[in-house]
Fold this protein.
Amino acid sequence: MKIQYKKWGLGGLIAFAMIIAYILNTTPIEAHQVYLDTLSVGITADSEAVKDYIEKLEESVSANGYYEVEFGKNLRFEDILVKEEALSGLGEIQAQIDAVLDYQTYGYQVLIDETGFEVFRTEAEANQFIERIKGMYSEKAQEASFAEDITVSRVATDQNEIVTVDYALEKVGKGREELETYSVLKGDTTWDIAQRFGLTVEELASCNTDQDLSRLQIGQVLRLNTPKPWIQVVTKEVIEEEQPVIGTTYYEKVDTLYVGEQKLKTQGKDGLKNVVIERTYVNGRMEHEEVVSEEVLVEPVHTVMLTGSKWREVAASGEFINPTNGVLTSRYGTRWGRMHEGIDIGAPTGTPIKAADAGVVTASRYISGYGYTVILDHGNGINTLYGHASALLVETGQTVEKDEVIARVGTSGSTTGSCLHFEVRLNGQAIDPLPYVNYE
């Protein structure tokens, strides 16, 4: 059998080439349908380029991972075979992604009794804020807690709502209320201002511990409130200390001395007791103090004073003057779970303290709790005590006249501010001093 081969002419070659090109152009290629969840945003043969764009987008909106960000739709690919002309350009896919891909920033919010406070970038920063607040007041405490329920919750937020730990600490320090103030007018008194704004003199004084309310000046700005704190840190400490047991002074009348004259017969000596005290603080300010136990270690030796029975005009008058110029900040009675046996008169450090009446100095020394203290014996079983002084100007056994300067106001001993602690004792028992002096 003879096999023949047909010769191709020029036209045949052109037709053959067209057939080959058609075949090549209609052959499907491997590609990827790009989805955001179920929404198609294009077809690509280079999935890595799309992934890289998504990663760069995430880095951009999260500030290179500084913020915690989640996209609202998930990127996925579906393998397909398509003609080359069906492929989407990378720029087209990117534009589609930009149009439909949303994202959300998340932060960690501190909740105070389930009410939102501030939002932090990370949970670690939120917990750091909580620990720093607690640490501000618990350095020496055996126990620390919050009065409020403090929790942390992950929340959706805007990046401009996220704050730093230092910013939140500063906000806590300012409190949640605006500070109210009042400028003193001509004719104003401390009592008038307190009554006008529904306060007691003690409350007004507690808001202005750094000011002299006994000498108001026109234009002087007074604070009318103390901003309420956002968070209250409750700390407790138990301390054990030795305190003096002040002995009683007894009197023997003799006709060799004038009335008002006294002479030391037997010098007493303070005893000593061991006291265990539990103190509760709220944001560093003592709110409650309780004596857990007391044990007398050394009994006191009582003082015996000879007191004159012969009359003389210079004897103690029996009527007291105010021992210092100031404002009554604390009254006689139960305070912080224990007896407050006198009154506190707030006054600037260095203000003169005067003898309320003529008498003999039976003590002029530092006494635990009272600080630098003067005790005067006025006869007839009446003693006065002047505590928290910054300076003592008289000596034990010295006779002083009524209105004589015996010390100066200070902050020695256990006190929250510059003041005079003034006591009146009748036959060794503390009594309310207010009936004997004239403070509003």
